[in-house]
Description:
The complex is a heterodimer. Chain A has helices at residues 9-15, 19-53, 73-79, 82-114, 120-132, 135-145, 152-159, 176-201, 205-213, 218-246, 250-256, 265-275, 279-308. Chain A is mostly helical. In chain B, strands 1, 2, 3, 6, 13 and 14 form a six-stranded mixed beta sheet that branches. In chain B, strands 8-11-7-12 form a four-stranded mixed beta sheet. A two-stranded antiparallel sheet of chain B has the order 4-5.
Amino acid sequence: MSSVATPAQAPRKRRRHTKLQRRQTRLAWLLLLPALAVVAFVALYPLSKTVYQSFTNQEFLAGLEPTKWVGLDNYHTLIHDPTFRDSVGLTVKFTVITVGIEFVLGLIIALVVNSAFKGRGLMRAIMLVPWAIPTVVAATMWRWMLDDTFGVINDLGVRTHLLSHPHAWLAQPSTVLLSACAVDIWKTTPFVALLLLAGMQVIPGDLYEAASVDGANPLQQFWRITLPLLRPAILVTLIFRTLDALRAFDVFQALFGYRLGAQTMAVYNQSTIVQDGHVGYGASMSVAIFLIIALFVVIYVTFVRVSER
Amino acid sequence: MRHRRLVIVAGVVGALALVVSLSVAVAGSKKSTRAKAATAVSAPAVANAKAIRKKYHGQKIVFVGDSVGNGHVRDTRLAKRFTHDTGIKVKVVPHPSASDQSYAQLARAFASKSSSIDVAMIDVVWPGAFAPYLVNLKPKLAKLAKLHIGSIIANDTIKGRLVAMPWFGDYGILYYRTDLLKKYGYKAPPKTWADLFKMAKKIQDGERGSNPNFTGFVFQGNAYEGLTCNALEWIASAGGGHIIDNGKVTIDNAKARTVLDAMRTQIGKVTPQGVTTYQEDQTEHAFDSGDAAFARNWPYQYGIGATAGSKVKGKFNVTVLPHGASGPSVGTVGGWQLAVSKFSKHQGAAIELVRYMTSPAVEKFDAITNSNVPTIVSVAKNKAVVKKNPYLKPAIASVPRVTRPAKFFGTHYNEASKDVYQGINQILTGTPASQVLPQIKQKLQLLLKK
């Protein structure tokens, strides 16, 4: 930015010190104050408290062990904690799989309900139902559907000979990730479709008319018009979903409880603080999770910046 | 126009979601309707009600109570009677059905000095951890405490303070189908785990033809507190110790490895593959819908199975759990106490509720209508009670009880138990015990040092 600075900027700088300018600056700060106070109270305070706690050995049932400053001890333990490492791996895998599949399916659904056909309004409503169901309810429903003795999925699978025998999807370690992904994809694809649909609706229709006149087929129209113009919506969707998936808690907790190998970062963090009562250690984990999620945000934002140039 | 359509769409989505949520909720609470039939006996009257009414009339207390089996129905009925007799309003809140989660909920309330809980149901392994947050009941309930089993009162007395009153006891027992044992030529229930696996396999193979969902054996294999109880029974019954013995971690030994690996190889063979996700409710459902030959559960299941309308009524019995190659049959000590929070604003009224709930009359009512183990000696020997609850017969009730190692860990017990049940669950889902037990041992040793 500064490299583009022109000599015209020099006099402007001097002008900032006029009385009026100063008064306006003061007024601006004054008007911003309530908002800043709210942000400080609801975001800055808890965040800084968490960071502070992460350097202590604080326990949940206070008074049993006096809280003291332990420096980087918690972080040292965290780096060598195999359960935490596993949970990071599981969460990242879960994020990549669900966001990828949800995006492709969501895009297809959005394209379908964006085209004009009879009963489109109803279709859009029905499409949203899975998303409107609370996650814990959805997970409970799926737990029954995936059950190895009376679950409908095994029953259908065996009847259609897709499965040789019923599987205990939720019990076998090899299908833990798959089951959780299925539930999340079922539940969240509508949300992705909704965001993409909103993006599609602002693309002017005359572009497609012009393309048709020029003889472009629907596939060409999709690649040349829809996809490029949808890019802002796509990026918003991906950022939303990635951050959401990285802090996945409810699906895993409702399906698996505190089983080893089925704990996401958030589940392990919650169990460390709430089940075990290690507030200090849990806080250091929260900070680590914050940094991991921040890393993803930085990657996305950089990508947006680069692609906008 | 556009807006109206949006509102309609949102309305339709909301309504459909609500329907789905409700139907899931209704399906989940199906068993409580079944429970109503079981409880025709009316709740006993409150003793000394007039004096209590005069003193505490109109006060409101919150009681965090049971959620497993018919527990919540029982709590609600007793609370209603208590309110009717004393004028003290009681709000009954069921606790999470996994007891480790229930522990976390209470710990949270106590840590924040919350007055939102007056009376809470606490597990037999918690008095040590929660003692500083509980009211000493000795001044008011010492006389009643003398009626209860001495060892449980001792368990609930921390540094001379009686922090909880025994409510009902628990120990693991084996449920078996008498009709199927006869059908397949067995005269007696299994004595050893090996016997059980053999019998379960034969019965399962035979029954699968008419019932594809049939399995030989169900227990609590999910990664939660209940699995710690189950695993302790397997290990102790094989002569492999009690997880911690004399302050030292003993779980990693050859006998424990053998019995745990034996269990692992049976998963999916004589049990459902999904038994590693079962808690008490799933166990009870499988057995009481006639889909299992054997089940390990607490005594409460007896009452549900013996209810009119149950598919296994008159077709099952209970006995001691099997044992391993070189150990005795044992049962893990469970059981629940009632405690009053130090942060309660109505401690007097709360103590009166505890007095009522742990009185001989209520324990008898609970044993007969709900098949819970009385903690009052005279009630446990009462003929009417024993007739309804055959597990109280001396042959079963006198089985050696094994205790979870709570006293060694104090406030860290919950975490220690988590290390145990997560590890055992790993074994059951396929990892050999020789890989997992050293890890559990290492984690427990770290916790013992704290």
